[in-house]
Each structure stands twice: as structure tokens, then as C-alpha cells.
Amino acid sequence: MRPLRVGAASVLAALVLSSCLPAPQAFDPARLPEARDLGAKNAPMEWWYVSGYLPGSGLAFHWAQFKVNYRGIPYHAGHVAITDLKTGRLTFIENDAQDARFRFPPLRVEQGGWRLRQGAATYTLRAGPLNLTLTPRKGPVVHPPGYSGTPEVGRLYYQSVTRLDVGGTVELPGGERRPAQGQAWLDHQWGDQQPGAQARWDWFGLHLSDGSDLMLYRVRDAAGQVVQVAASRVGVDGVAREVPGVTMTPGRVWRSPSGREYVLTWDVTAPDLRLALEAVRDEQELLSKTTSVAYWEGPVRGAGTLGGQALTAEGMGEFVGGVLTQAEGGRFLPPRR
Question: What single Pfam family name could you report for this chain, choosing any that match (predicted)?
């Protein structure tokens, strides 16, 4: 398992040599996507994520594929993060191959040798150390109100498959292939937002012990002001419903080796919800040179009550820390609005 080398030449080739795309479609909040249409769109920014906290395997993982329309020129970036919770080792691998392919239906997301493919009843994810089979336990949903963000910071349509059973293996440094068992979360977002610079967010995708799934996010502008807080709960019936009146109160702050600060404990409330969340471990900062974005991505857990009944939560959190400096290897920014 060798990390893919991220070179400036690949970025330059994508920006100079690639064929020009049609003008990206404008964001229209009145035209929301079909939940099952997870295919690629002609948008300034688009991504697919699969993330999972697998405590029974002593693992957490995160795969991301980005599709960017940079002033009419396509750019593609991918990465994989693996946390070995038994040793505390975090492995981060980036993919800057520009031979990307996207198809739907069925869903095909491919970059170099990495690929997410939809089959009749499962998805397969083959990306670096990940060799996974993902079996959905619920269908795709569009999270109310259908997108994240605001007109001022940009907006992203938001679809998810919130609960997938994980099988297969994860290859760890040293050659160990560990069985992967647990649950994962798949996201698809696209729109006109510039992550890291124009907007930052604090996000959770949580599997609750009552069989429902909770999505939480807090969007901040470039000055750090909170401009949106939203949540939706996907019930056992597979229906996504807004969680009204939600609040996300920050707690303990961790300062990373890069000097950025991330909130790693949270108190979440709504009229019938109380939930205390915490990071499983602190050292989960990812500095992505292919996207020039710094963020914390890792496993989280919590406990509380819903409708007066006790419950627990397990899942993943993502907290965006901003763009990379030139000294950190930052060189590529998503398109300006």
C-alpha cells in the first residue's frame, strides 16, 4: 500500500489541458433533486463521501471523491483516511489522477484505480486500502430543506444513504488486512459553495441506537459567524424529517499541530432531543493538498435521550478548519462564485 504522489504537474495538466465544460448549472432552491439520482451533475463543486466508525473492527474510515468545475475546466481529487483505533495510527492517502469517470444509473464514480460502484443490492468501494461491500439498510434521502448553506456563503444540494452495512477488508500499514464490520454513511452534495474559504461547517452523521439516523450541521461564513444550523432524522421507516429548533453548543476545543482549533465535544438539543457528543480521539486532522482544505474527520460517539427515552449514538464528524497556506502545500482553490 503506497501513498499516491500529489504533484503540481497533475493540477496544472487538469487546468490547462483538459477539455472545457459547459457553463455550470445555477443553483435553484426551488428545484430539488430526486433522492435516488446520485449521479454526477454539472456544478462548480460536487463530492461523494463514504465514512464509517467500525468499533468492532477497531477502525474508522473516510473516502471522498471531488469533482470540480474550475472556470470551465474539470479537476478531480480523491482521498482516503484510515484510523486504526487499536494503535492510534492515522493513514491519509491522496489521489490526484485526472482520468475520472462518472455514470448513472447505476452509479459509477471512478478516479484512476479507485472506484465506487452501485450493484443490484450493494455498493462496492475499492480505493487504496479499502476493499469494501456496502449494503444499504435504507434508501437514499434528500435532507430537508434539500440543501446546506445560504445564498451568501453558497449552497449545496444534499442527498444521503444514511445506513449501510459494511463488509470486506481494510489494509493497514505493514500489510495487515483487517475484516471490516459495522455501519457506514454515504453523502452526495453539489452546488456553488466554496468549502474552506467561503464556508466552513461542523457536521455529524450519526447512527442512533433506536434504529434512526441523525444528520447535524452548523455552517459558518469566512469570518466564523454561524449562518445556519440544521438537522434531519431518518427514521426506521427510511423517511427524512426535519428536526426543528435544533441547537449545537460547542464544548472542548482541541488545537491541532497545524495550529487550527476544532471543537471536539458538543451538546445538541431540540424540543425532544438531548445528546452529548464527543470525539473518540483527538488526532484526526487531515491536510488535503489536492483540495487545499484542512479539516478534522473522525469517529464520534454520544448518549442522551430522544422523546424521553435513553439512547446512544455512533458515527462520524467533520469540522472544516479552513484552507491550506502555501507553506502547507496549498495551491488549488475551488471556483469562485
Answer: Lipocalin_9
